[in-house]
Amino acid sequence: MWHFHLSCNLKDDATIQHMKKSFLQQLFQKRTVLFFTALVFCMGLQAQTKKPNIVFLLIDDLGYADCGFNGGKDILTPNIDKLAKEGAILKNHYVQPVCSPTRSALMTGRYPTQTGIYTVITPGAQWGLPLNERTLANALQEAGYSTAITGKWHLGDFEKAYQPNARGFDHQYGHFFGAIDYFTHVRNNQMDWYRNGMTLKEEGYSTHLVAKEACSLIEKNAASKPLFLYVPFNGVHSPFQVPDQYTQAYPNLEGNRKKLAGMLAAVDEAVGQIVASLKKAGMLENTLIIFSSDNGGPPPGKNTPLRDFKASIYEGGTHAAAFAHWPGHVPSGKTIEGAMHIIDWYPTLVGLAGGSLKQALPIDGKDVWPMITKSGKSPHKAILSVSTRGPSQAAIRMGDWKLIVSDANESDGDAQKKQVKKYEPVSLFNLAEDPGESKNLASAHPERVAEMRKELSVLLKNAVAPGGK
Fold it and tell me: What are the 10-residue block averages of pLDDT along the chain, 469 residues in total?
């Protein structure tokens, strides 16, 4: 408040008018300063609350130790490694043992025990991700995002209602199942390549095509709504196929390992192209990029120092190479030790997008943003891994300890009986001291086994039957 006071003995009208004019000028100047200060504050607040673009890169069958950022030595992944270095490596990022269960966990924020997707959904299967499930794409779409998938869906296609365009994605491109031919896009003598659910006959190496579509979507979306771009590459899943130029850098490798190296080099190139498109569109600074494998690598992939491979509930099957990148938000050059599961991205991303987590079905995932950005602790008391056999073979991690329980079923076939023999009935490992799960400590820690079995039984209590049965 400014006060204007005239002394009674002022008799000169000119002096009075001059003082009035001076006062009004000062008042205008101060109000102008206040206005622009408020404007700058509001602009800063708007910048802080601007919804981030989200790009989720899911690499199929990537080995834990195949990329340079996670210890790989014989395959060059410069673009992936640069992103990881500029972001935060997620040292204990868990997934499911095979493709479809991981994808359902990401899309719903719920364990396979809730969805019934314990194993791979095959072509022609008369089931898929249950239609009562709200997907991550649904939630982000509701929050005002443009949503797109370019790559592998693998959550059902036998009816349109199960396909991506009916599950929250504005745009779909790529294939519905795995193990397609990289050049013809055929599996089981049937074309598996689509745009918005319509069969598409298109020439080209699938990794190249997936990247090209992703880049096009980024550049078209630059000036419109925030973007959720889900890029589940079919690389580096078998069959082992790659253009010859990608293997020339690996004369010391042989057979499928050499082909895998070339396939991963092609994926790395694709990641670099996507990042370049984000830069060109002016979107990179406000884009959260998440990178993860969908499960551990099968041979010839490398999961060192972890035990076993894809389809296993040992660490080599469920412990994924992963990182997060967002300039100015995700700390650069850090390694996050806290344990998390791919289910956690559902509530985390919806929260960052300003969306709603109110829904009919309960969410298993936790918000891991404080853990990633503020060096917080893992929000999990326990993390569950369920085998392709379902709840009768499961693992639980609590802190540094991991328990595996494997029960045989009378109805098991020969393949399932072989899988059961891989595990002891009860196994306990200290992952901090023994990441390779080489020493079973169950007999030495009966009380810890009892505690963890109790927690495991709680997580498995209401497990639903496998889908399609």
Answer: 40 54 56 44 47 98 98 97 98 98 98 98 96 98 98 97 98 97 97 98 97 96 87 98 98 98 98 98 97 98 98 98 98 97 98 98 98 95 97 97 86 60 95 98 98 98 91
Is 319 one of the catalytic residues? no
Q: What is the pTM of this model?
A: 0.89
**Of the residues 8, 42, 67, 154, which is catalytic?**
154
3-class DSSP string for the chain: CCCCCCCCCCCCHHHHHHHHHHHHHHHHHHHHHHHHHHHHHHHHHHHHHCCCEEEEEEECCCCCCCCHHHCCCCCCCHHHHHHHHHCEEEEEEECCCCHHHHHHHHHHCCCHHHHCCCCCCCCCCCCCCCCCCCCHHHHHHHCCCEEEEEEECCCCCCCHHHCHHHCCCCEEEEECCCCCCCCCCEECCEECCEECCEECCCCCCHHHHHHHHHHHHHHHHCCCCCEEEEEECCCCCCCCCCCHHHCCCCCCCCHHHHHHHHHHHHHHHHHHHHHHHHHHCCCHHHEEEEEEECCCCCCCCCCCCCCCCCCCCCHHHHEECEEEECCCCCCCCEEEEEEEEHHHHHHHHHHHCCCCCCCCCCCCCCCCHHHHHCCCCCCCCCEEEEECCEEEEEEEEECCEEEEEECCCCCCCHHHHHHHHCCCCEEEEECCCCCCCCCCCHHHCHHHHHHHHHHHHHHHCCCCCCCCC
Residue 147, token pair as written in the block:
């949503």
Give the CA angle between residues 246, 250, 252 to the nearest 5°.
160
Spot the catalytic one: 99, 175, 185, 380: 99
Domains and CATH numbers, the chain: 49-380 (3.40.720.10), 384-460 (3.30.1120.10)
The answer to whether 325 is a known catalytic residue is no
